[in-house]
Amino acid sequence: MLTNAPKGTKDMLPKDAYKWHYVEKAFEELCRRYGFREIRTPVFEHTELFVRGVGGTTDVVQKEMYTWEQAKRSLSLRPEGTSPVVRALVENKLYAEVQPTKVYYNISCFRYEKPQSGRLREFHQFGIETFGTDDMMADAEIIAMADEFLKMMGITDVKLRINSIGCPECRENYRKVLKEWLAPKYDQLCDTCKSRYETNPMRILDCKSPEDQKLVEGAPVMLDYLCDDCREAFEELKSDLEAMDIAYTVDPGIVRGLDYYTKTAFEFISENIGAQSTVCGGGRYDYLTEEIGGPHMPGVGFGLGIERLLITMEENGFVIPEPEGPDAFIAFMGDRAKKYVIKLVSELRKAGFSIEMDSLARNLKGQFKYADRVRARRTIVIGDDELDSGRATVKDMMSGEQQTVAFEDITALLK
Ligand SMILES: [Zn+2]
Ligand SMILES: [Zn+2]
User: Fold this and answer.
1) Ligand closest to CA 232
2) Tens digits of per-residue pLDDT, 255-271?
3) Domains present along the chain, CATH in parentheses
């Protein structure tokens, strides 16, 4: 037990870290270009925040949260990224600053999910949120950013699906229609959907059970029940996407799992190797800030699972370039040379170079082998003879070329 990580968690090992760095750097760079700034919030919050922000009737809150009590306060590890950001926004009065507020985050989230679903219990997410505008341009902007990011990451098999899930006004009307339509099929629904029937009937439409998927075929769709405002907004979104040359399909089945979503809902779905999986999902939530006790502040955002992203990149044959090895490995022979090399390595590192030397008392052959393993670009050898002559032998590991270089010229050579 001591040497096993808890089920559903995973170590990120040094040999894989460069892949994470690669996607993180690309994402951050894109955020900069689109004008989003980073926000970091605590890993845990008051449980009540998620009950309100995610919805007390959702599986996430009812079954999947890591919750504990401390000093008579109920606390929970964050199961998603949006509610904490909204909480921070309200608490720090960011709504009083110039709008819109555009933030991004790179976080880990925690959900106690069944291991067979293949999902991690600690998983990682990139997220984007724009607050303070209900203009569909903001929705189109974050969709464009997700689209560009996935393309940058070499994901070509992805399709954008969009939908509108209306506002509380038109959704109420649709809910009634949907419930009437579902009533004769109620007995055949799965147990989860039976409980959804009263609390959140729209969620029945994206039940994962194949039997239920069959049952809901031909169900009335939200798009046919949108109010004028929501319909106009959806048309505007579509024309904004067209203006940016972003291909999409309208899919009334995109419902989103969380209660606070309004209007725009979208998913980027990868269709590699037959199986469908959502790489990025998001939408609008115009009433979330009020839900958690803040002023009215419309918002729109997306989340993008990093584990899923890396898998999808691999499926698409995208090879993340491995980082370069050290600029040089400096091998030494004898104690006198060791002292000199320690000093030289320190100076070169301070000058900005990546330099390695042996710390295991290996012989020269062993040091060369190690230099090869760490993919050093050059090997520099210094022994008694070199100390006496003030010149070192430098071998370029790529070309195999060798030359002798005066100590004082080593810095220039590495540049
Ligand atoms: Zn509406
Ligand atoms: Zn179901």
Assistant:
1) 1
2) 875 657 899 999 999 98
3) 14-167+227-315 (3.30.930.10), 328-414 (3.40.50.800)
